[in-house]
Design a protein that fits this description.
The protein is 48% helix and 14% strand. By secondary structure, the protein is α/β, with parallel strands linked by helices. The chain folds into two domains: 198 residues, Rossmann fold (3-Layer(aba) Sandwich); 130 residues, Isoleucyl-tRNA Synthetase, Domain 1, CATH 1.10.730. It has a four-stranded antiparallel sheet. Helix 1 crosses helix 4, helix 8 crosses helix 11 and helix 8 packs antiparallel against helix 12. The relative contact order is 0.09.
C-alpha cells in the first residue's frame, strides 16, 4: 500500500533494554515504585490483566474468546495514585489533548470508577528485561512497550537518529493508538513520564488520538481469531492508492466501522474511476483540444490559485484534527462540483475560435481546482497526486495527457 517505515524498532535492541532499565531505575529512585502482591485475571492474548467488569457474560475475554487465568504473584507496583490528580487536570484542560472527544470523556470516566496502582513487573516470565535491582522480576510487557516510545529517541545508539533524536522527536506531538489501550496511553504512560521528569508536564505527549476498529461482521479483526482482510489482495484488485482510499473513506477516522467488501468495487468506480479519474482526464483532453490562447489560459489559472487559500487553510485545520474522513468527503465534493461545472458549461461544444474566452474561463477554473485536489490528496493517494501534478505541470505551463488514473473495475 505504498507504506514504509524509516526505522524498524525492536524491543530486543540493546539500546532499548538499557534505556528501559535506566527509566525504571529512575522511577524507583523517585520513590514511585513499591513491592507488593497482585491477584488478578490475566489474558495471555491481551498480555494484560482484566477486571471482572471487562469480561463477557461467560467470563471470557471479549476479544480473544477465552477465560483469563487467575494469578497471584509478587510484583513491583507504580504509585499511580500519586499522579492521577495532576493527570486529570491536564486532560480536562486539553494540555494532554485526547481525541476524538468521546475518548476524552471515556478516560475522564475512568477516574470516577477508581483506578488502582499498577504492576510494572512480573516474576518467572520466559523472556523479558530484568529489573536492575531484582533479577527474579522482569519489566511487565505493557510497561516495556510504552517505554519503547522513549528509548527509541533518547539514546544516540538508536539507529538512524544520531544526536537529534531528543530535540526532534520528544516530547511527542501525537500518540496514535487503538481505543482499547487508552488507559495505558492516557493514564499510565503520562503518569510514568511525570514521575521520571519530576512532575514536568512539558515532557508529556501533546495529543493522544484513539482510533476505532475495522471490524468483520461486527467483530474486531484479530490475528488470534483469524478474521483478517488481506491488504495484498486489496492492492492487487484496486492498486496502492485505490486500496488506501477504500479503507480511509469507509467511515470517520476514530470511529468503528464494519468492512463490507461488496461495496469496494462500487465505491472505487464511483469516486475514483468515474470521479477524480474522469475529471482529470476530461479536463486535460479538453485543454489540449480547445485552448488556443495558452498565455491567457495560464493567466487565468494563476489568478485562481491564490483564491484557494481559504480552502487550503480549512483543509489544514481538518488534517490537524485528524478528520481524514471529512477531508476525503470534501475532496470528492470538489471533484463533483467541477464535473458538474463542465457538464453545465459544455466547453467541448463551443467554437474555440469564437468562444475562446469562455472556454479559458471554465477550464482555467477547473484546472486550478484540480491542482488543489492534487495537493490535498497527496497524504492519502500519493501516487495519484504526483501523476495529476505532472499532468498539469503548472510551474512549466505545459499540460500533458497521462495514463488512466483509475481504470474502471468490472
Amino acid at each position: 500500500m505504498n507504506i514504509e517505515y524509516s526505522q524498524f524498532i525492536r524491543t530486543t535492541n540493546s539500546y532499548h533494554m538499557q534505556g528501559a532499565q535506566q527509566f525504571i531505575s529512575q522511577l524507583k529512585s523517585q520513590g514511585a515504585l513499591y513491592e507488593g502482591d497482585y491477584c488478578g485475571l490475566y489474558c495471555t492474548g491481551c498480555e494484560s490483566f482484566l477486571t471482572e467488569r471487562q469480561l463477557d457474560e461467560r467470563g471470557f475475554c471479549p476479544d480473544h474468546k477465552k477465560p483469563p487465568q487467575k494469578v497471584t504473584e509478587k510484583n513491583w507496583f507504580f504509585k499511580l495514585s500519586d499522579y492521577l490528580p495532576q493527570i486529570k487536570i491536564l486532560i480536562e484542560n486539553d494540555e494532554i489533548k485526547i481525541s476524538p472527544p468521546v475518548r476524552k470523556q471515556e478516560v475522564l470516566g475512568l477516574f470516577k470508577q477508581g483506578i488502582e496502582d499498577f504492576s510494572v513487573s512480573r516474576p518467572q516470565v520466559e523472556w523479558g528485561i530484568p529489573l536492575p535491582w531484582d533479577k527474579e522480576q522482569t519489566i511487565y510487557v505493557w510497561v516495556e512497550a510504552l517505554l519503547n516510545y522513549w528509548t527509541a529517541v533518547q539514546h544516540n545508539s538508536a539507529p538512524g537518529l544520531g544526536t537529534e533524536g531528543l530535540d526532534k522527536f520528544w516530547p511527542p506531538d501525537l500518540h496514535l493508538m487503538a481505543k482499547d489501550i487508552i488507559k495505558f496511553h492516557c493514564l499510565f504512560w503520562p503518569a510514568m513520564l511525570l514521575a521520571y521528569y519530576k512532575n514536568d508536564p512539558r515532557q508529556l505527549p501533546r495529543q493522544i488520538f484513539a482510533h476505532g476498529f475495522f471490524t468483520i461482521n461486527g467483530e474486531k479483526m484479530s490475528k488470534t481469531l483469524g478474521n483478517v482482510i488481506d491488504p495484498s489482495q486489496l492492492v492487487h484488485d484496486y492498486g496502492d492508492d485505490g486500496a488506501r482510499y477504500l479503507i480511509l473513506s469507509q467511515f470517520p477516522f476514530g470511529s468503528d466501522g464494519d468492512i463490507e467488501a461488496s461495496r469496494f468495487k462500487e465505491k472505487f468506480n464511483a469516486d475514483l474511476a468515474n470521479g477524480i479519474g474522469n475529471l482529470v482526464s476530461r479536463t486535460t483532453h479538453l485543454c489540449l483540444k480547445q485552448i488556443n490562447d495558452w498565455a491567457d489560459f495560464w493567466s487565468i489559472v494563476q489568478q485562481k490559485l491564490p483564491k484557494q487559500q481559504p480552502a487550503w487553510n480549512h483543509y489544514q485545520t481538518l488534517m490537524s484534527e485528524l478528520k481524514l474522513y471529512d477531508v476525503l468527503k470534501e475532496i470528492m465534493q470538489l471533484a463533483k462540483e467541477n464535473d458538474q461545472l463542465l457538464a453545465s458549461e459544455k466547453p467541448w461544444s463551443l467554437d474555440a475560435t469564437v468562444k475562446q474566452e469562455q472556454i479559458i474561463g471554465v477550464l482555467g477554473r477547473v484546472t486550478a481546482a484540480i491542482d488543489l485536489m492534487a495537493r490535498e490528496l497527496a497524504p492519502f493517494l500519493p501516487k495519484t497526486a504526483e501523476k495529476i501534478t505532472a499532468m498539469l505541470n503548472i510551474p512549466n505551463q505545459k499540460i500533458t495527457l497521462g495514463s488512466s488514473l483509475f481504470p474502471k473495475v468490472t
